[in-house]
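User: Reviewer 2 asked us to show a designed sequence for the structure in our supplementary figure. I'm pasting the structure tokens here. Could you produce the per-position amino acids so we can include them in the response letter?
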């Protein structure tokens, strides 16, 4: 009889890969760490700290010749049976910070969650305010500290560039809008967003159930997440989604749009000498992973560091995203390097 392989094993199996251009031999020496402090413990309201029994120190992985940023990072390995940490020393001029989907909803932009049951971003107005608080307290200080040192801060937004956002944000062509263009665009954005009718359909009053499958019928007619026209209103997703006002946005920042495609983002950054990505943004369990500017696209082409406390997962059935973000980042650490805002330091001494 042919022996079957357990499904979990199939999910985790991977063949060892060999570097395309092995110009350097890395000594994979793992030294046990004694009584290390919890990881990602600076902002427990937003990220449940990571505590693991076995943690190891490994040699420096990334070492740029003119490094001016220290980025300590870690990953999880089932085979090593623990967390592996290593220092990295990178050149800020070869680095971009990517902010995935910092949607400006339920803030001062005028784009709001439709009533009485519309959903967007973290999917309720209360959860959106929690997200904006994390942006103000954690992400914005991180961006402001490194803006002007890293080469670019790049925000990704849904859709494609439209006439309004083209006047407000610097796009991948790298041309900066004039002060007059930006002022005109902001006025048009306010009028467009505040002119929308944010009242749509209510929850169903009755649900038709069959005798055989009442559970199936119930969820089919009343799912946990429906962002379509009934609850959000026709035209809601056609509005120009802005960057949240919880974040500082400067003339030098770049906005990339999902429908432009990853190749355009990649080629623009490569042409500008970018080698490293500090990945921030939303939502850790969805857009952060697999949208156009998500880490799945960037990882084959750049040295990616997920900034674990500068992101936030969706958190259904909970009043805090702390555990959900921990779970999403922990799973990503199987094949990604993870850092945190306090581990990214300037003017390092290797």
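Assistant: Here is a per-position design you can include in the supplement:
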């Amino acid at each position: 009889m042919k022996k079957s392989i357990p499904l979990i094993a199939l999910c985790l199996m991977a063949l060892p890969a060999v570097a395309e251009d092995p110009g350097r031999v890395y000594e994979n020496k793992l030294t046990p760490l004694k009584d290390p402090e919890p990881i990602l413990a600076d902002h427990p309201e937003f990220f449940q700290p990571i505590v693991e029994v076995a943690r190891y120190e490994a040699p420096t992985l990334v070492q740029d010749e003119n490094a001016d940023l220290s980025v300590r990072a870690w990953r999880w390995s089932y085979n090593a049976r623990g967390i592996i940490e290593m220092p990295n020393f990178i050149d800020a001029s070869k680095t971009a910070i990517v902010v995935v989907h910092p949607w400006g909803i339920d803030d001062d932009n005028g784009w709001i969650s439709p009533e009485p049951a519309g959903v967007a971003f973290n999917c309720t107005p209360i959860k959106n305010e929690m997200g904006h608080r994390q942006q103000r307290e954690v992400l914005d200080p991180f961006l402001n500290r490194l803006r002007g040192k890293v080469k670019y801060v790049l925000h990704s937004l849904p859709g494609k560039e439209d006439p309004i956002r083209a006047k407000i944000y610097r796009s991948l062509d790298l041309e900066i809008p004039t002060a007059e263009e930006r002022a005109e665009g902001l006025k048009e954005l306010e009028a467009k967003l505040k002119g929308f009718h944010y009242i749509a359909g209510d929850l169903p009053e009755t649900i038709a159930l069959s005798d055989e499958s009442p559970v199936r019928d119930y969820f089919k007619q009343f799912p946990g997440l429906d962002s379509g026209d009934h609850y959000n209103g026709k035209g809601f997703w056609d509005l120009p989604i802005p960057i949240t006002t919880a974040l500082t946005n400067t003339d030098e920042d770049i906005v990339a749009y999902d429908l432009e495609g990853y190749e355009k983002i990649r080629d623009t950054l490569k042409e500008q000498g970018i080698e490293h990505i500090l990945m921030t943004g939303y939502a850790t369990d969805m857009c952060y992973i697999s949208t156009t500017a998500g880490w799945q696209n960037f990882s084959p082409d750049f040295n990616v560091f997920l900034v674990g406390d500068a992101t936030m997962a969706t958190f259904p059935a909970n009043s805090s995203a702390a555990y959900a973000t921990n779970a999403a980042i922990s799973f990503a650490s199987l094949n990604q390097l993870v850092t945190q805002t306090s581990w990214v330091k300037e003017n390092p001494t290797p």
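For the response letter, you might also mention the following. The chain has one domain: 92-346. The mean pLDDT is 94.
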